[in-house]
């Protein structure tokens, strides 16, 4: 084989299918065997965790989103993958650390598996990693940074509705003199919302995180553009969050067993509106509303429920121009998906 020929992938679609079968059966022993056999065959930690475990988890999320899997099935599969990450980590050799990084999930973000995968890939690349887990309060993160003095923070955010909290955490880290490498679709599928909130860099995968740590990262300099005009309107949106939730729940007139979940969904959409205004990108709200509508449809929900949410937001926030504009765009995109 000549030196310029591409290397065969260490993880094949058949491997991912076999691993998904293990998740479907909630069989951690068999799933760990798929992963460790790949390691024994020469696959790297990044190969196994990114191309096998993370790839399979994206399919798990899709099955939940489309209603093919229940929440219980998704939770069981995720727990199996967490055990597999443990098994891979136990087989990873430890090198002299190149430096110290902290990995954490944005406050309110409970999806921690992606951050754990990043932690183990970065650890395998030679860094000492402290994994703080899911939903880390900003003040606790800053306190830990002052105590431990890491070289960088790897911050994970899956849902864009958490972007306001992510911005506060990034600001606090920068004030402590620690740069932030952002990761996860909560910053946009292409990371477009990472720079506007002050992150030093964004990576799509755990491999990207390890690569970015090799380059210069600056905590003090704001790498993004100045805040857009009217960006401070997001504060007013958050102040009216409870009023919007209360109005939407009353208007929806759902049974008590569904009202609580519906209220939480309303709150997430309000948070997404606030985040969209904060970064000056209405597409954030458009995409989130489309996703939320898809979840409702997959679970037998009614499209009018999303209309109730958008109407409630518009009524409570009638005096706020950016909110009205963004909500109209979201409604238009839902009416004509080709506009999204």
Reported for the largest beta sheet, the result is: 5 strands, parallel
- The fourth-level CATH homologous superfamily of the largest domain is Cobalamin-binding domain
Low-pLDDT ranges: none
User: How many strand segments?
Assistant: 5
* Cα-based radius of gyration, to the nearest Å: 21 Å
Overview of the molecule:
The protein is α/β, with parallel strands linked by helices. The chain folds into three domains: 9-92, Methionine synthase domain (Methyltransferase, Methionine Synthase (B12-binding Domains), Chain A, domain 1, Orthogonal Bundle); 97-225, Rossmann fold; 233-339. It is 59% helix and 7% strand. It contains 14 helices and five strands. Strands 2-1-3-4-5 form a five-stranded parallel beta sheet, sandwiched between helices. α5 links the parallel β1 (100-105) and β2. The longest helix is centred in the C-terminal third of the chain and has 24 residues, at 256-279. The mean pLDDT is 89.
Fold topology:
Layout: H1 13-24, H2 28-40, H3 45-65, H4 71-90, E1 100-105, H5 113-124, E2 128-133, H6 138-148, E3 152-156, H7 163-175, E4 180-183, E5 201-203, H8 206-213, H9 233-239, H10 241-252, H11 256-279, H12 282-298, H13 303-316, H14 321-335
Parallel strand pairs: 1-2, 1-3, 3-4, 4-5
Provide a short characterization of the protein structure.
With 340 residues, the chain is of the alpha/beta class. It is 59% helix and 7% strand.
Keywords:
single chain, 340 residues, alpha/beta, Methyltransferase, Methionine Synthase (B12-binding Domains), Chain A, domain 1, Rossmann fold, 3 domains, 59% helix, 7% strand, globular
């Amino acid at each position: 084989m000549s030196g310029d020929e591409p290397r065969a992938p260490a993880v094949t679609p058949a491997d991912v299918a076999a691993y998904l079968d293990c998740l479907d059966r909630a069989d951690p022993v068999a799933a760990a065997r798929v992963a460790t056999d790949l390691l024994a065959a020469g696959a790297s930690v990044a190969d196994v965790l990114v191309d096998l475990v993370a790839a399979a988890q994206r399919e798990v999320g899709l099955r939940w989103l489309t209603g093919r899997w229940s929440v219980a099935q998704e939770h069981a599969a995720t727990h199996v993958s967490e055990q597999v990450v443990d098994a891979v980590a136990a087989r990873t050799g430890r090198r002299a650390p190149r430096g110290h990084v902290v990995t954490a999930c944005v406050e309110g973000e409970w999806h921690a598996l992606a951050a754990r995968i990043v932690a183990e890939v970065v650890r395998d690349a030679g860094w000492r990693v402290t994994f703080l887990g899911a939903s880390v309060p900003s003040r606790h993160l800053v306190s830990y940074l002052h105590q431990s003095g890491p070289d960088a923070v790897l911050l994970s955010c899956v849902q864009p509705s958490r972007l306001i909290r992510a911005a506060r955490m990034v600001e606090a880290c920068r004030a402590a003199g620690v740069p932030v490498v952002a990761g996860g679709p909560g910053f946009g599928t292409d990371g477009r919302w990472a720079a506007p909130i002050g992150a030093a860099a964004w990576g799509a995968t755990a491999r990207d995180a390890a690569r970015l740590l090799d380059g210069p990262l600056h905590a003090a300099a704001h790498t993004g553009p100045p805040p857009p005009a009217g960006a401070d309107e997001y504060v007013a949106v958050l102040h009216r969050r409870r009023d919007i939730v209360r109005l939407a729940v009353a208007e929806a007139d759902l049974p008590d067993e569904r009202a609580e979940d519906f209220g939480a969904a309303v709150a997430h959409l309000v948070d997404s509106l606030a985040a969209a205004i904060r970064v000056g990108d209405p597409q954030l709200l458009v995409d989130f509303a489309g996703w939320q509508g898809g979840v409702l449809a997959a679970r037998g929900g009614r499209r009018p429920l999303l209309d109730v949410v958008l109407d409630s937001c518009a009524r409570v926030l009638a005096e706020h121009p950016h909110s009205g504009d963004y909500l109209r765009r979201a409604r238009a995109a839902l009416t004509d998906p080709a506009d999204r």
